Amino acid sequence: MVITFVLSGNTGGALSASLQNPPYGRGLDAAKARNTATVMEVLNSIKVAEVAQLVKNLTPEEQDVLMKYLYAGMAAPEQNNSGVLLAWHEKLTEVAGQGCIVRVITDRRTV
């Protein structure tokens, strides 16, 4: 479904769909890796000029999940473009505020 959105140029739909129902819990490492890779692919497919508006269109819950994926992506710099992730982090923090960072850091559920 996410790939369909990306191929059709609906980057907002792709982003929102990729953030739905993240796998939480133990024993889901393969699912977490697949979801993280999908979110990273979506983030890399979006133009920098579109980032701020797309972040504004996300629900607060989706913004928090996106922040979790940004940190997961930053934890593997050899696999992800840190510049892209930092640009997303900057825009997300501008829109969602520092509370988003605090919620993500204190949440025991990881993606």
UniProtKB/TrEMBL annotation:
InterPro entries: ARPC5, ARPC5_sf
GO annotations of cellular component type: Arp2/3 protein complex
Function of the molecule: Functions as a component of the Arp2/3 complex which is involved in regulation of actin polymerization and together with an activating nucleation-promoting factor (NPF) mediates the formation of branched actin networks. Functions as component of the Arp2/3 complex which is involved in regulation of actin polymerization and together with an activating nucleation-promoting factor (NPF) mediates the formation of branched actin networks. Arp2/3 complex plays a critical role in the control of cell morphogenesis via the modulation of cell polarity development.
GO annotation terms (biological process): actin cortical patch organization; Arp2/3 complex-mediated actin nucleation; regulation of actin filament polymerization
Chief localisation class: cytoplasm
Protein name: Actin-related protein 2/3 complex subunit 5
Organism field: Entomortierella chlamydospora
Keywords associated with the record: Cytoplasm, Cytoskeleton
Keyword Cytoplasm: yes
Recorded family membership: Belongs to the ARPC5 family.
Pfam families registered for this protein in UniProt: P16-Arc
Subcellular location: Cytoplasm, Cytoskeleton
